[in-house]
Design brief:
The structure is a single chain. The chain is α/β, with parallel strands linked by helices. It is built from six helices and 19 strands. Strands 1, 2, 5, 6, 7, 8 and 19 form a seven-stranded mixed β-sheet that branches. α1 packs parallel to α2 (57-70), α1 runs parallel beside α6 and α4 (151-160) runs parallel beside α5. The longest helix has 22 residues, at 282-303. The two termini are 14 Å apart. The model has no long low-confidence stretch (mean pLDDT 96). It binds flavin-adenine dinucleotide (FAD). Residues 7-13, 30-33, 37-39, 41-42, 45, 47-48, 79-80, 107-110, 152, 156, 239, 242, 272-273, 280-283, 285 line the site of flavin-adenine dinucleotide.
Length: 304
C-alpha cells in the first residue's frame, strides 16, 4: 500500500515527486514514456526561471528527474490503464499489474490536438509531425508548413529556420496569439512566410508529404503549396480518459480542482496541464506540483 501514486512524469509530477519523497511519503511515480513530459519535445526553454541563458528541454527535465530521485523518488515505466478512485483506498491498474494507494495525484498532462483533416493520420510520422525538435533536422533545405499561431507554433517555426529552406506559418486569424517578443522574431525571420486567415484542408501525399491544400477563410480561395513537412501546433487536449466519469471535468475534459489541487473526490489530486486553467507552462506545472504535495501531506495526516 502506497501513500501516494503520481501518474505522469512531466514537470508537475516530478516536482510533486521531489516534495513528497523528501517528506518521506511512500510514493511511486508511474510514467508510460520517458520522464520529462512535453518539455522533452521542445529544443530550448527561455522562460523557466533560474536559467538566464535558457536551457535545453532535455537538460531541464533530466535535472528535475535526478533531483527527485536523489531524495528517494521511485519512477516506474508503466502506463496506467484503469483507475478505481471511489473507495478510501484507490486501485491503480497499469500494463504491469495492480497497485493500491491512499492518495492519487493526476499529473498526466496533455497531448497535441489533431487537425482531423485528410492525409493527417495517413502521413503522421511520414512528414506530418507534432514535434519540431524531434523531426526538424529531417527537413534540411526543404519547405515546410507550420499550422497554428500561438507561442508554441511560433517558437517551433523559429526553431525550424535552422533547417528548412522556407516555412509557411498557416494561421486561421489575421494576427498571431504568440507573445510580442516571439512575433517580432518571427516577422524578422527571412525564411518565414505568414499565410493569414488560412486553414488547412488536406495534406497531400502517399508515402510522404508532397503538399498542403489551404483555404483563405475570408476570400474562400483554395490554393496548394508544395511542402515536404507539416508541423501541427494547434493546442492540446487533456489525457483524462482514465478518470472520465470519476472526477469532475470541464467542458473540454480538463480536471476541475480547487486552489489546493483537490479534485471532486477525496484523496484524488491533480496538477499541471491536465487541470482546468488558463495558463499551461512549465513554471505553472511545477508550482502546482508543489502545492499538491502540501495538500496531499495534510490529507494523509488527517487519515491517520
Ligand atoms: C513543443 C512544446 C514547447 C513548449 N515550450 C514551452 C516553453 O518554452 N516554456 C514553458 O514554460 N512551457 C512550454 N511548453 C509547455 C510545457 O511543456 C507544459 O506546460 C508542461 O510540460 C506541463 O507539464 P505537466 O507535468 O503538467 O504535463 P506533461 O508535460 O504533459 O507530462 C505528462 C506526463 O504524463 C504521462 N502520462 C500521461 N498519461 C499517462 C498514463 N496513463 N500513465 C502513465 N503516464 C502517463 C505522459 O507520458 C507525460 O510524460 C511547451 C510544450 C510543447 C509541447
Amino acid at each position: 500500500m502506497y501513500d501516494l501514486i503520481i501518474i505522469g512524469g512531466g514537470p508537475a509530477g516530478l516536482t510533486a515527486g521531489l516534495y513528497t519523497a523528501r517528506a518521506r511519503l511512500k510514493v511511486v511515480l508511474l510514467e508510460m514514456l520517458a520522464p520529462g513530459g512535453q518539455v522533452l519535445t521542445t529544443d530550448w526553454v527561455e522562460n523557466y526561471p533560474g536559467f538566464p541563458d535558457g536551457v535545453s528541454g532535455f537538460e531541464l527535465m533530466d535535472k528535475m528527474k535526478t533531483q527527485a530521485e536523489k531524495f528517494g523518488l521511485t519512477i516506474k515505466n508503466e502506463e496506467v490503464t484503469r483507475l478505481d478512485l471511489s473507495g478510501e483506498n484507490k486501485v491503480v491498474t497499469t500494463n504491469k499489474g495492480t497497485i493500491e494507494t491512499k492518495a492519487v495525484l493526476l499529473t498526466c498532462g496533455a497531448t497535441w490536438k489533431k487537425l482531423g483533416i485528410d492525409g493527417e493520420a495517413l502521413l503522421a510520422g511520414k512528414g506530418v509531425s507534432y514535434c519540431a525538435t524531434c523531426d526538424g533536422p529531417f527537413y534540411t533545405d526543404q519547405k515546410v508548413a507550420v499550422i497554428g499561431g500561438g507561442d508554441t507554433a511560433v517558437e517551433e517555426a523559429l526553431f525550424l529556420t535552422r533547417f528548412a529552406s522556407h516555412i509557411y506559418v498557416v494561421h486561421r486569424r489575421d494576427q498571431l496569439r504568440a507573445i510580442k517578443l516571439l512575433q517580432e522574431r518571427a516577422m524578422a525571420a527571412e525564411k518565414i512566410e505568414f499565410l493569414w486567415d488560412t486553414v488547412p484542408l488536406k495534406i497531400i501525399g502517399n508515402d510522404g508529404v508532397e503538399g498542403i491544400e489551404l483555404k483563405n477563410v475570408k476570400t474562400g480561395e483554395i490554393v496548394q503549396r508544395d511542402v515536404q513537412g507539416v508541423f501541427i501546433f494547434i493546442g492540446t487536449q487533456p489525457n483524462t480518459d482514465i478518470v472520465k466519469g470519476q472526477v469532475d471535468l470541464d467542458e473540454n475534459g480538463f480536471i476541475i480542482t480547487n486552489h489546493h489541487m483537490e479534485t471532486s473526490l477525496a484523496g484524488v489530486f491533480a496538477a499541471g496541464d491536465v487541470r482546468a486553467k488558463l495558463f499551461r507552462q512549465i513554471a505553472t506545472a511545477v508550482g502546482e506540483g508543489a502545492a499538491a504535495s502540501y495538500s496531499i501531506e495534510r490529507y494523509l495526516e488527517n487519515l491517520e
